[in-house]
């Protein structure tokens, strides 16, 4: 701020009035204090709701984490075995010698089983290379197990070391080396199957956790906390950022994901809303022609040259709460809410920082947004009135997306996904150059994915 | 910023009612004059004061201690007044006043007019003249900034300022002359 020229009348008034004080009306502090207390009560409710929501999310994450770490590998659906000899039906109390091959000496003590196993329980003659191509590299290893006592280590023909934790139920083995997940426990069922084949000298066990490269489709929804950031004009943007308030909105859509290793790429289609609310503001102009009660068709509103069409001025004039005159300005305690609706096509990359049964990913991407609707509403406590559409708004823009994605397996191929996301419009939504307006939103997307 | 003020601000950030009341008592006098200068009438000035202080207490945690606190408060109060002006904007500024005294006369009458009387003169200006004069002469904004805030051209801002000055000169001159006659 700099004075462009000095003037004696300006200085005269400024010198006497700039720091001049007068006692404010005595009742004012009580009014302000009362309003602050009311606002505080409202804030407490918002905080309580936020804490409840956060608690629910933390509990769900905790449950997912617990389940993820205690979940026995259920590989029955992805379990493949090749048998090199001719398996036969075996009977109760048959001693089984699975293998003693390999470079090292491996014990061949038998294990008693109480079950009858049949050849048809297993997939034989499967091409290992073909199976290998489906594997994601996490678990896939060939091994040849040997019937042994608990605590013994055996070596398979590939030189892989295997620890038998318990030959009895629950039977568990651990792959000790040369594998990306050395502490993986294989379920009782599979060990039973492995041990239950008579006369097998070499058994190749392949465990497939997930396909190496996989696809998934899903859907999600989110409540959004939406607002608009203003910048460029220093004074005005600060003013608008103070006076404008966020609104709650919704988003939801369908997505398709391609997964390879630790990376997952997502696209799809999303419907989203954004906007802001301004209290007591009919900025830049009134609805009236200067000095008259006659309504004008458009007027400047909030965002520089953004204008609202009064597409139904007759309704404005007959609005029930208007106490006097013909102006909508007489509607007391009103706010204006701007709502924009977009169809978005996102391109998001997820990088898995936790890649176990539960998956935690960092997300980042961009979305191309097409404006499919915009509306402005004049509202007070009991009424909402549609004022028309907002002109001067870009119909196409881009937004940057950042977030986290947390995925927990549910049943079969379904998984639950929770994704806190922040979305910020990269280019201004306003064609006007005086003030740049960037809608942004935050929300937690929740949804399901189906992997195939 | 004094330690006492810093302590009060921290109390306000913590939501302490007594700290807020102390801050209000410290600055309400100056802010009230700001409201009176911009408002169309007494009731509107009270609304601006109330809304302005609500915003101040709401945003006080955003105040950076390096800045001038009173200036920060004043700016919020002015912004609130500006919003109120835009809400009730009247552009019927047809009245044209002409100066009847020269600037030398103004220099000689300085001591005889009180600040309250000057405040009354500003309050009687047409709304947009009043906004432009307050922004330019009292607050020190440029015509470019004023044009942006009010959504008018720089030329209109200059023209409004010139007319506001003419009106004020006339009022000052009239008061001076009546003072001489009474004297």
What does this structure look like?
The complex is a heterodimer of chains A (452) and B (183). With 452 residues, chain A is of the alpha+beta class. Chain A has two domains: 75-207, no CATH class; 212-451, Porin, CATH 2.40.160. Chain A contains six helices and 15 strands. The longest helix of chain A has 43 residues, at 28-70. Chain B has two domains: 3-87, RNA polymerase sigma factor, region 2, helix turn helix motif (Rna Polymerase Sigma Factor, Chain: A); 103-182, Winged helix-like DNA-binding domain superfamily/Winged helix DNA-binding domain (Arc Repressor Mutant, subunit A), CATH 1.10.10. Chain B has nine helices and no strands. In chain B, helix 2 (17-38) crosses helix 4 (69-87). Chain B is globular, with a radius of gyration of 19 Å. Chain B starts with a helix and ends with a helix. Classes of the chains: A alpha+beta (452), B mainly alpha (183). The interface between A and B is large, with 50 and 62 residues.
Helix content of chain A: 10-25%
Q: What is the residue-mean pLDDT of chain A, rounded to a whole number?
A: 63
Largest sheet of chain B: none
- Count of helical segments of chain B? 9
Record the strand order, biggest sheet of chain A: 6-8-9-10-11-13-14-15
Q: Tell me the fraction of residues in β-strands of chain B, as a range.
A: under 5%
Q: Could you say which structural class the secondary elements and strand pairing of chain A correspond to? A: alpha+beta
Number of strands of chain A: 15
The major sheet of chain A is characterized as: 8 strands, antiparallel, barrel
* H/E element order of chain A: HHEHEEEHEEHEEEHEEEEEE
Relative strand content of chain A: 35-45%
Judging from the principal axes of the Cα atoms, what is the shape of chain A? Answer: elongated
Number of domains of chain B: 2
CATH class of the largest domain in chain A equals Mainly Beta
Computed CA radius of gyration of chain A, to the nearest angstrom: 34 Å
* Largest two-chain interface: A-B, 50 and 62 residues
Report, as a whole number of angstroms, the end-to-end distance of chain B. 46 Å
């Amino acid at each position: 701020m700099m004075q462009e020229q000095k003037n004696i009348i300006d200085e005269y008034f400024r010198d006497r009035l700039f720091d001049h004080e007068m006692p404010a009306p005595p009742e004012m502090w009580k009014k302000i204090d009362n309003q602050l207390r009311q606002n505080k009560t409202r804030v407490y409710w918002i905080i309580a709701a936020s804490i409840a929501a956060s608690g629910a999310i933390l509990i769900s994450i905790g449950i997912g984490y617990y389940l993820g770490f205690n979940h026995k590998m259920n590989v029955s659906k992805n379990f493949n075995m090749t048998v090199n000899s001719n398996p036969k039906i075996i009977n109760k109390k048959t001693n089984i010698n699975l293998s003693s091959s390999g470079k090292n000496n491996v014990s061949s003590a038998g294990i008693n089983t109480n079950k009858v196993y049949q050849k048809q329980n297993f997939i034989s003659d499967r091409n290992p290379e073909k199976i290998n191509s489906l594997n994601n590299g996490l678990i896939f290893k060939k091994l040849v197990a040997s019937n042994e006592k608990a605590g013994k280590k055996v070596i398979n023909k590939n030189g892989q070391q295997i620890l038998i934790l318990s030959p009895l139920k629950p039977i568990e083995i651990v792959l000790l080396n040369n594998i990306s997940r050395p502490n993986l426990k294989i379920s009782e069922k599979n060990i039973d199957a492995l041990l239950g084949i008579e006369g097998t000298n070499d058994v190749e066990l392949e465990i497939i956790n997930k396909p190496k490269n996989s696809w998934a489709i899903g859907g999600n929804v989110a409540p959004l906390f939406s607002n608009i950031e203003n910048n460029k004009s220093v004074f005005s943007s600060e003013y608008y950022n103070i006076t404008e308030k966020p609104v709650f909105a919704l988003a939801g859509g369908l997505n398709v994901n391609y997964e390879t290793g630790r990376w997952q790429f997502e696209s799809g289609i999303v419907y989203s809303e954004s906007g802001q609310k301004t209290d007591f503001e009919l900025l830049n102009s009134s609805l009236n022609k200067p000095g008259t009660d006659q309504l004008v068709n458009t007027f400047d509103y909030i965002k520089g040259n953004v204008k609202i069409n009064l597409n139904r001025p007759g309704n404005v004039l007959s609005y029930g709460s208007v106490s006097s005159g013909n102006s909508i300005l007489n509607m007391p305690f009103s706010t204006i809410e701007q709502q924009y609706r977009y169809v978005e096509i996102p391109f998001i990359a997820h990088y898995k920082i936790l890649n176990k049964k539960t998956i935690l990913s960092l997300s980042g991407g961009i979305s191309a947004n097409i404006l499919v609707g915009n509306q402005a509403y004049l509202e007070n406590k009991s009424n909402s009135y549609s004022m028309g559409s907002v002109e001067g708004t870009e119909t196409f823009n881009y937004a940057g997306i950042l977030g986290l994605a947390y995925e927990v397996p549910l049943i079969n191929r379904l998984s639950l996904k929770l994704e806190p996301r922040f979305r910020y419009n990269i280019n201004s939504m306003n064609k006007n150059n005086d003030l740049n307006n960037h809608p942004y939103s935050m929300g937690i997307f929740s949804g399901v994915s189906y992997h195939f | 910023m004094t330690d006492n003020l810093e302590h009060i601000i921290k109390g306000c950030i913590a939501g302490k009612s007594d700290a807020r009341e102390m801050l209000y008592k410290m600055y309400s006098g100056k802010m009230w004059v700001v409201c009176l200068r911009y408002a169309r009438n007494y009731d509107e000035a009270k609304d601006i004061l109330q809304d302005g202080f609500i915003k101040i207490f709401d945003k006080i945690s955003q105040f950076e201690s390096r800045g001038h606190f009173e200036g920060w408060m004043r700016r919020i109060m002015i912004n609130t007044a500006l919003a109120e002006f835009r809400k009730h904007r009247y552009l019927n500024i047809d009245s044209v006043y002409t100066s009847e005294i020269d600037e030398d006369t103004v220099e000689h009458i300085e001591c005889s007019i009180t600040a309250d009387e000057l405040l009354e003169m500003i309050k009687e200006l047409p709304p947009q003249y009043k906004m432009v004069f307050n922004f330019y002469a009292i607050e020190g904004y440029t015509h470019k900034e004023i044009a942006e805030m009010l959504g008018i051209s720089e030329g209109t801002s200059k023209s409004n300022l010139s007319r506001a000055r003419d009106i004020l000169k006339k009022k000052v001159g009239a008061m001076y002359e009546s003072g001489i006659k009474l004297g």
